[in-house]
Design goal:
The complex is a heterodimer of chains A (271) and B (208).
Chain A (H helix, E strand, L loop, with lengths): L3 H4 L2 H16 L3 H16 L13 E2 L5 E4 L2 E11 L12 E11 L5 E2 H7 L14 H9 L2 H4 L34 E4 L8 E2 L4 E10 L7 E12 L10 E16 L1 H7 L9
Parallel strand pairs in A: 1-10, 3-10
Antiparallel strand pairs in A: 2-3, 3-4, 4-8, 5-7, 6-8, 9-10
Chain B lengths: L9 H20 L4 H4 L2 E6 L3 E3 L3 E15 L4 E17 L4 E3 L1 E5 L5 E2 L11 E3 L4 E10 L8 E5 L4 H4 L6 E6 L6 H7 L3 E2 L5 E2 L2 H4 L6
The chains are: A alpha+beta (271), B alpha+beta (208).
Amino acid sequence: MKHARNDGPDLAFRLGRRVVTAVVDDMSTVQRVGVGVAGALVALTPFGAWSEAQAQADPLIPGTAVEVGPFELTVEKAAVADELGWLVPEPGNHMLAVVVDVTNTGDVPEYSTTLADAVPAPRGVGIVPEEPLGNLGGDLLAEPDAAIGTEPEPDAAPDTPAGTAPADPSPAPEDPELPSPTVVNIADGTSRSALNPGVPYRLALIWEQSGDFAGASVPVEIAGLDWVEEDFAGLDDGHWSVGEVAFAGDVAVEQAREADDEAAAPGAAQP
Amino acid sequence: MRHGRRRVTWRGTALVVGAVTAGCALVTALPLDSGVDDPFVVEGAVGETLDLDYAELTVTDVRVADTVAGFAETALAGGTFVVVDVTWRATQQATTFAGAEITDARGRRYWPAALGDCAVSVSTQPGYAWHATYCFDVPQEALAGATVRLARGSQSEEYAEQRRDAVAVVGLGITADEAPALWEATETVTPEPQGFATPATTGEGDEG
């Protein structure tokens, strides 16, 4: 008789097979089929077997309220301005603000970042992509003296010494990560981290946009927010999860100056 | 290995499934730890000094304003600001008081905003009276019967940090009759930045 220890890795498999065989042998055909079907359904669960079929996004009409998770939200308009208070774009760029009326219809405060997560940056209208984190490391690893006071060129450092900077060969992917909007309360130019229930807020969701953009509208999408009562791994219970795009539509862009007065000029709020 | 022929019967299966279901139901239904996790609530009113074991707390004043003017920024309420002035005195050790929340008569909850010189979290050394002002942006229906809940544990994550710890719940003393007038008023409050409590900031100076 061989020592079980020497059988090593396949011992568990053999034991398992023996148990399964013993149980299955004693089953009727109907029982076997039933167990097979139940097993298959359980196995499919993590792949979304029970999720509803993907729905088409509803049209987003400016001025019409939509329900998104805990928020009742009305997209009012979009506007561009050279700068909005403390938000100053790079030279040549401007700021794009999507103006929304929002009320938290729940019983507890919600973070404004939850709202920001539900409104992704409009695609294809020159929103300035997020600075890849790799660049931060690149700055630090580059020659310290040379880095100070000089604008780092976007495609610099082709001659990075081997083994230093983790030079990403694809720094400009075709679909770059676009940033979350900065959320500003329009009435006073302040930022609100929590949106209290029942309080109507008029907010500007602001992105930096390339100066080349001269379109008359931007495509705004609003993703659904689903409440996660119990997280799959139990590590992050009770939060709003960003789902599929639920509403999508073009929002007309007001040009420059008039928007400047209205959309968040914090300086103007001083008494 | 096998001794005789056994059968997996429907009855046996039903017994096992039934036992598991009953066990799950029992675990779900029994209030296993609700009593253990409850905070120790100390109730009080404006002007009363409450002993929270780790600190003494006095809500010194409650005001309603639609504008909060701070040194660096001025904030306009979406609803109206309930401005709550308090004095914390940590009694054991340096303490951060991270919990501040208003609950209205219907149970809806409101968090303070870090606007103007309003505080959302307060850190103090033990033995000193420390003044802070919290500003809550609330809708009109939240005013009447509202209470403020203050503690060292934060109220986020379903009060996880306040479990088995002392928590103060102070009635703001706003009646249903007063609420409409307070809502209509267009007051501007300039909160005192948080710092050592002086007679001026606690309102005690008014008496002398």
